[in-house]
Amino acid sequence: MNSEKERPSRLIVLLPESLTGNLEFAQKIHWMATRAQNDVLYLGLLDNPDNSLTAQRGIATMKAVTESNLIHAGSVLAPAACWFEKLREVLRPGDTIVCHAEQVVKHGFLKTVAMPEYLAGILTASVVTVAGFYSPQRALTKNLLNELLFWLGSIVILAGFTFLELQTDTSFPGFAHKLVLAGIVIIEFGAFWLWSQIVRR
């Protein structure tokens, strides 16, 4: 019981994936934490779980900017679709939730509610709002462009390796053909994987 009371209050920062690695935002959180004498917990909200490593690297940089001799910064990741469940799991008495004025929550069919309003109506914790850092439209546009770039690159890779596979039909007879074809297929899968990693950076 005593150890629970001795734990410092925290700023629980709801961090959209598009803001991971944003040092200007980290400086803002550092200022808020210093002013309130709170520790910080970044709750990273992943749109795509495959991006967890990239998000972790970005958040690690933000934590380094946020921390000081008096402030400890931690982090936890969760799928964006499960943000509320994860928030309730990590929330402790005395914590303050930091969210973005531009964040919204789906509420019913084709209806949204501003996240600060939603949180204030359903939780007893204090809610602090920041504005000007998160742009849902910009994040959506970036995701769409990345998807388009990924598929265009994939088509080029597929076309290139298909051409090579057709060339092996006439250039290598018998067992050599199978061996070369197997090698091309392995390299093709590697090229797809490498391209997906490049696009997601």
What does this structure look like?
This protein folds into 2 domains: 7-134, Rossmann fold; 138-200. The chain contains 7 helices and 7 strands; from the N terminus they run αβαβαβαβββαβαα. The protein has helices at 2-6, 23-36, 52-66, 83-90, 115-122, 136-171, 174-200; strands at residues 10-16, 39-46, 73-79, 96-100, 104-106, 112-114, 126-130. The strands form 2 sheets. The protein has a 5-stranded parallel β-sheet, sandwiched between helices. The chain has a two-stranded antiparallel ribbon with strand order 5-6. A hairpin with a 5-residue loop joins β5 and β6 (112-114). The protein is elongated. The chain starts with a helix and ends with a helix. The mean pLDDT is 86.
Summarize the helix and strand pattern as letters: HEHEHEHEEEHEHH
Share in helix: 55-70%
How can the largest sheet be summarized? 5 strands, parallel
CATH class of the largest domain: Alpha Beta
Report the sheet-strand fraction. 15-25%
Q: Span between N and C termini? A: 44 Å
The average pLDDT value, as a whole number, equals: 86
Please, what is the oligomeric state?
A: single chain
Structural class: alpha/beta
Which architecture of the largest domain does the CATH hierarchy give at level 2?
3-Layer(aba) Sandwich
- The CATH superfamily of the largest domain is known as HUPs
Q: Low-confidence stretches at least 5 residues in length (pLDDT < 50)?
A: none
Strand order of the largest sheet: 3-2-1-4-7
- Give the CATH topology of the largest domain: Rossmann fold
The geometry reads as: elongated
CA radius of gyration: 23 Å
Tally of individual helices? 7
How many domain modules?
Answer: 2
The count of DSSP E runs of length 2 or more, i.e. the number of strands, is 7
